[in-house]
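FAQ: What does the model actually see?

It sees only this:
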Amino acid sequence: MPSFTAAIALIVVALSCYAALCAASPLGSCRKCHGFGFKVKQNRRGRIVRGRPCRRCQGYGQRVRVGRHLYNVATRLHREGTR
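And it is asked to produce this:
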């Protein structure tokens, strides 16, 4: 039984750390363009040049974290339900 309580405590600590991360930094870098906001490609000479804007983040290079998205949904639902 002690390992079960230790596992629950570890899960609670991990979730609280992720919640603190989402509160401190709600945006993370885009996983498709790695935060550049555009696709990096090479021209014919082999030089790296800027490509088209990223479709996933619309060229911003940032995305909303999953935890922050869930928080935004919950607050919006609460706000609309208490009017």
